[in-house]
Amino acid sequence: MTAHSNLNIVPFVSVDHMMRLVLKVGIETFLTELALVIEEDFRRWEQFDKTPRVASHSKEGVIELMPTSDGTLYGFKYVNGHPKNMKEGRQTVTAFGVLSDVGNGYPTLLSEMTFLTALRTAAMSAVAAKHLARPNSKTMAIIGNGAQSEFQALAFKAIVGVTELRLYDIDPSATERCAGNLAGKGFTIKACSSSQEAVEGADIITTATADKQYATILSDNMVGPGVHINAVGGDCPGKTELHRDILLRSDIFVEYPPQTRIEGEIQQLASDYPVKELWEVIAGKCEGRQSERVITLFDSVGFAIEDFSALRYVRSKLEETGLYVELDLLADPDEPRDLYGMLLRCEAHLRVV
């Protein structure tokens, strides 16, 4: 974007702007372009500051801060996860994010990230499957048909080539809604009556449930040779979706091991259990899928670099679309040391008017 002459002004992308941006670009194009930015940043993974997210857990849910920097830009996301919210008419996950200039510390973007997190999570899942699933994978089971499900389906269609969906949720109305939302989007869709039925014949299995508890969404007998598992729902301590035996049969790929060992499916395993880092596969430093019969598992918990990529991508679209407003966010006195004088001038102005 062109630099603003007023140093107090920061571009803000609202929920309305984000929806309009996605629709203007086209959701599948948006997901595909975002995936390319994620891959670009994963290839330079070693340039980034990396730390597990800072989490505040309660019995109701979690509130997290997710920071990172590549030395030029700094980004962070504020995000919550409260499974009980749905019963209260609220979103389970909401978020906003900031991108800043490392050189002067000034924010260069403030953005909603509830929609953007759903989009980047889906794009990240599809990037992993692009590198780990069997070639020509066409059929995906989605177990857990909540707010993430349509985004996952569209990302896998755009990036991996999935055209057949098998849907299951313990709430049939969620499956009905998901199937309805995806009607006419180029899928063959089957609503299933059980998770067992959903995984039959699937090349890829996505689990995206919300309950904050140890759970067995997939049992060992449900996963055959060659399947790629995209485990999205397990993302905090005490919350898992897969039976431990599945992990022991799989080649496991993660984002950032120190975080995933606390929050991911691999919290069920010993702290030194061998896993592979996805960035090394994307960068060509290690092999992904080793054979047709290997079970690959992307133990996805979400990492700050993915949000950094998403914010970077959105910022690149602002000048051409104009889909933002200018926020008077930062104090900008005429003399940098005279912050109190700025207050006095405001007081004098108010007396006049």
Structure description:
Helices cover 35% and strands 24% of the residues. It folds into 2 domains: 9-115 and 306-352, 2-Layer Sandwich (ornithine cyclodeaminase, domain 1), CATH 3.30.1780.10; 125-302, Rossmann fold, CATH 3.40.50.720. It starts with 8 loop residues before the first strand and ends with a helix. With 353 residues, the protein is of the alpha/beta class. α1 (15-25) packs across α2 (27-43) and α2 packs across α4. It contains 11 helices and 17 strands. The relative contact order is 0.17. The strands form 3 sheets. An 8-stranded parallel beta sheet has the order 9-8-7-10-12-16-14-15. A 7-stranded mixed beta sheet has the order 2-3-4-5-6-1-17. This is Ornithine cyclodeaminase.
Would you spell out the secondary-structure blueprint of this structure?
Elements: E1 9-13, H1 15-25, H2 27-43, E2 54-57, E3 62-69, E4 73-81, E5 95-101, E6 107-112, H3 114-132, E7 139-143, H4 149-159, E8 164-168, H5 172-182, E9 188-191, H6 195-199, E10 204-207, E11 214-218, E12 228-231, E13 240-242, H7 244-249, E14 250-254, H8 257-263, E15 276-277, H9 278-282, E16 295-299, H10 304-321, E17 325-328, H11 339-352
Helix pairs in contact: 1-2, 2-3, 2-4, 2-10, 3-4, 3-10
